[in-house]
């Protein structure tokens, strides 16, 4: 077991079918995490999914809140803040993914079909999980999908789809041109007006 990791439960039942595993990485956002988990656990779907909260050594009672209010959620508490990558890797290891994917003979059939890395400040619409899984099922060549994000007032959060951070793109943002033009970098197209289309990309943030 990773030396910075303290698990609150045993390993998952790897033989249990799972369409979707949701990893929520948390650090001192107990109130936001509570609201997020309420929406996730309230999702109405025929999907088989499990939820794992990874707490990065919070001191605001986040871990205690999850234990007391969401017994169905698996909780991992890290003894120190491992950052975004290290924290999510804690959850992925619990699900059965190894540090050297594809080299240890791990049977893909025992892993979740999909994994969602979800921020704790997110409120998930009741049908969002099923729609995302359906989208991936209908696009078998897609390796990663990012959902459209909306602000509390219903407007599009443009951060859900960012362009490659080149000097030109930085300039466009500084002068406000990203609101008026189509920014194209290599094979990735950024379309702020709709954010509905699929596109290939050479990087993932």
Fold blueprint:
Elements: E1 5-7, E2 20-26, H1 30-41, E3 49-56, H2 62-69, E4 74-78, H3 83-95, E5 114-118, H4 128-138, H5 167-175, E6 183-185, E7 188-190
Parallel strand pairs: 2-3, 2-5, 3-4
Antiparallel strand pairs: 1-4, 6-7
Helix pairs in contact: 1-2
Description:
This protein folds into two domains: 5-138, Spore Coat Polysaccharide Biosynthesis Protein SpsA, Chain A, CATH 3.90.550.10; 153-205, no CATH class. Helix content is 26%, strand content 17%. It is built from five helices and seven strands; from the N terminus they run ββαβαβαβααββ. The strands form two sheets. The protein has a five-stranded mixed beta sheet with strand order 1-4-3-2-5, with helices on both faces. The protein has a two-stranded antiparallel sheet with strand order 6-7. The chain starts with a strand and ends in a 15-residue tail after the last strand.
């Amino acid at each position: 077991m990773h030396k910075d990791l303290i698990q609150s439960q045993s390993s998952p039942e790897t033989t249990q079918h799972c369409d979707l595993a949701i990893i929520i990485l948390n650090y001192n956002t107990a109130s936001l995490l509570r609201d997020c988990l309420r929406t996730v656990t309230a999702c109405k779907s025929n999907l088989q999914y499990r939820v794992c909260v990874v707490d990065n050594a919070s001191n605001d009672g986040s871990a205690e809140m999850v234990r007391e209010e969401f017994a169905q959620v698996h909780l991992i508490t890290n003894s120190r803040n491992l950052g975004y990558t290290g924290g999510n890797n804690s959850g992925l290891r619990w699900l059965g993914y190894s540090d050297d994917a594809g080299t240890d003979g791990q049977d893909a059939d025992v892993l979740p079909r999909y994994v969602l890395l979800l921020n704790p400040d997110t409120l998930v619409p009741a049908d969002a999980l099923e729609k995302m899984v359906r989208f991936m099922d209908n696009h078998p060549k897609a390796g990663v999908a990012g959902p459209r994000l909306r602000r509390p007032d219903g407007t599009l959060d443009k951060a859900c789809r960012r362009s490659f951070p080149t000097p030109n793109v930085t300039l466009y943002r500084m002068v406000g041109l990203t609101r008026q033009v189509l920014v194209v970098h290599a094979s990735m197209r950024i379309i702020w007006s709709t954010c509905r289309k699929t596109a290939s990309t050479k990087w993932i943030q």
